[in-house]
Design brief:
Elements (H helix, E strand, L loop, with lengths): L1 H16 L5 E6 L4 E7 L2 E8 L5 E8 L2 E8 L5 E9 L3 E7 L5 E10 L4 E11 L5 E9 L4 E10 L4 E13 L6
Length: 177
């Protein structure tokens, strides 16, 4: 009996020593390759590469939950940055022009299982020169994004030229999340 307990103890120690702690795993798909990085056996980040090998997006995790999201242009400049401000899926997001200036900012709901980014609440949109020219208010039904209101500014005359509330909300056709 003592020998059996001793052998079980040795087997348990051996199995624990074989446990992967820090490692990288590649996940291949039809149009993308994903590099998943683990630390202490937990997923800490993943990088998605397009079919040309360019970094498309990067996700940072904490305790299995996405806390930061980066999307990149093909030239590897940052397209957008999102960070979790309320678990499980409410993110604050900034989208950038290719020149590095901010294009828009607001909140999204990110549904990881569907890889779905849906605008919510007020969003500010900027010109390529960095001036705010509109504010849109969004809602969604977990599938489609709707515009509830829009305010447009004349940046030359510095005045509001349109301020509308839509009832019912209007379907947002843009696919820029």
């Amino acid at each position: 009996m003592k020998n059996l307990i001793f052998m079980v103890g040795i087997i348990i120690l051996f199995l624990q020593s074989c446990k992967k702690e820090n490692y990288t795993e590649w996940i291949r798909a039809e149009d993308t390759d994903t590099k998943a990085i683990y630390s202490k056996g937990r997923l800490v980040s993943s990088e998605v590469y397009d079919k040309n090998g360019k970094l498309d997006s990067k996700y940072i995790y904490n305790n299995g939950m996405v806390i930061k999201i980066y999307h990149y242009y093909p030239n590897q400049k940052i397209n957008s940055y999102s960070y979790l401000h309320k678990a499980p899926n409410h993110f604050t997001t900034k989208i950038y022009f290719n020149n590095g200036k901010i294009a828009s900012e607001g909140e999204i709901d990110f549904y990881k299982d569907k890889n779905l980014f849906l605008k919510r609440g007020p969003w500010i949109f900027y010109s390529k020169t960095g001036e705010a020219y509109s504010i849109y208010t969004f809602s969604h039904d977990n599938k489609n994004v709707y515009v509830e209101g829009e305010t447009l500014f004349d940046t030359i005359k510095n005045k509001t030229i349109r301020d509308v509330i839509y009832d019912p909300p209007v379907l947002w056709k843009k696919n820029d999340f």
